[in-house]
Amino acid sequence: MLGFSVYLGEAFDELYIETMLNHGFKYVFTSLQIPEENSELYFDRLKALKLLVGDKAEIIADASPHAFQNLGLSYKQPDVLKGLGIDYIRLDISLAIPDIISLLSEVKIVCNASTDAISLLDELKDQDIDMSRIMVAHNYYPRPETGLDKGYFIKQNTKLKTSFPDISIMAFVTGTVYRGPVYEGLPTLEDHRYCHPLIAAHELAALGVDDICIGDTGIDTTTINQFNNFFNKGIVSLHVQSETKHLESYIGRIFHNRKDKARDVIRAEEGRQMFQSEILPENTVARTRGAITLDNNKYGRYMNELQIVNKDLKRHEAVNVIGHVYQQDIPCIDLIDAGTAFQFVKGEEKMDISRLTTESRNEHSSKLDTLTPEQFVDVMNNEDQKVAQFIKEENHAIAQLITQVINGLNNGGRLIYMGAGTSGRLGVLDAAECVPTFGVTPDVVVGLIAGGPSAMTVAVEGAEDDESLGEQDLRNLNINEHDTVIGIAASGRTPYVIGGLRYAQSINVPTGCVTCNKASEVGKHADYPVQVDVGPEVLTGSTRLKAGTAQKLILNMISTGSMVGIGKVYENLMIDVKPTNKKLKQRAINMIQEVLQTTDEDSERLFNQSDEQVKVAIVMGMHGISKEEALVRLKQSKGFVRNT
Fold this sequence. Notes:
It is a single chain. This protein is α/β, with parallel strands linked by helices and 644 residues long. The chain folds into 4 domains: 2-233, Alpha-Beta Barrel (TIM Barrel); 235-346, Cyclophilin-like (Cyclophilin, Beta Barrel); 363-565, 3-Layer(aba) Sandwich (Rossmann fold), CATH 3.40.50; 582-643, Helicase, Ruva Protein, domain 3. The chain is built from 21 helices and 20 strands. The strands form 3 sheets. An 8-stranded parallel barrel has the order 1-2-3-4-5-6-7-8, surrounded by 4 helices. The protein has a 7-stranded mixed beta sheet with strand order 10-15-9-14-12-13-11. The longest helix has 20 residues, at 546-565. The chain is elongated, with a radius of gyration of 32 Å. The active site is at 433 (proton donor), 464.
């Protein structure tokens, strides 16, 4: 059976409780011993909770002798506990057998499956009691890295089921609304801390768990429906987004995976039987895991076959990609076995940001509001110092991306950045600086920001959430196979960026990305992903800080490295600089003097004779030739001074 948690120190969400009960959740877990809560509220809220729950579910209260003492309760007064609305008492530590027998006269008990349940059950089985009034439950573990080891968990469950085959075992999975003060989920198994709750629940059931409880404060409606459909109806529900009009016809219908289960795809056995329409080739792009495909008329008798891709596959001219499973539901594809029922559900993708590193809380700044300015600066500076080391781990990936950009630029292509918010502004800034620094025209390095130029100073509402806007911005640039499109997104989930990268890949334009979360959704649409995990921000979720710093440093590398690669630098001098003011003109003359080891007067003369082109002036001075001859040599060397 399924359960969920309600914490007495928090105001009740009556709609949430009603929704859970209506979807078949039969247990409500609560605790009487949470240090952060006001225990004075417990009694009234327990009674109120029982009124809400009625006979639709049973309430399990976690308690210890110390908690009972603080609340003025006694294990010897089970009628009082029953009067508070408690159906089960979970014993945090063992009690004397007489006390347990006393409790069982009015309430049921739950033993601690993670520690001492077996020894306690051994003692109880010799007593004249109804063992059906006893269940066991594992702990949940708020602190990361402290959840149970799976091997230990299996051993405990095996021992319990071997000695007490009729005993019911409960364990916990995380919700989608994390509970404080740690906000890292409340699972039993450490392996489940950051995975989809339904996947965790399915694995617990496979490991001998009878009752599965949501440990956290809440779980969103879409996941509630998934639990209900899977455990009560045997249907795997997948939230999807359309890419062509065809997916709409399949929303809400029940399909079954073929009984001869394929390795790489889920094949709907009803697809070709249910639909007979002519399917023309459309959106025949590379198929990433989670893509929903429909075979077109180039596949002959397979036309109208509906599939879900279970691993990344190449583009096929006879296979249309008509939609994709949202990122958070892709793990649920693994629940579809031979003959398993599944359905597509239309809805917005959940921005499950609580699980992103960039949205996690930083333990080193948890008391930020209590720090003096000097202490604050120390904390922030210490965190910022880590950024360069994190970037170093991605050096190879950055170098590969730079190599691709160089190849594209050498063939007349462009470097195109695209992003939203801070990420977009950083791309526009880097692109703008390339014009005076390296002497390129504004169309060589381009920065796109969701919402257009006005978004540089004022947020444009909804722009970053529009995938089609990302595609349209690239269409307006008439991108081609020599361009390189780089998506910038700290979270790695920005729809504007995903839409642009997906479009670029569909027409074989090379793509890269710069994100600050590993295994990001944006990264799945990049041929050259750069994904740097810089850890939680000092100010939770403020990705203009470490994430923004990391992105700026990486963009510096990409643009500068690319310009070095096409001959815009000699030694470490920016010899294609545009001297648009007095400072830059003097810098240009100084560079000429530095390279040629000549006088101020000769350097200025060469500068003027070259029409203020530093690179040309240097080649003139190196070889004692005219401006025209220098230009010829530079053309022959493809712009590299060293090769003239």
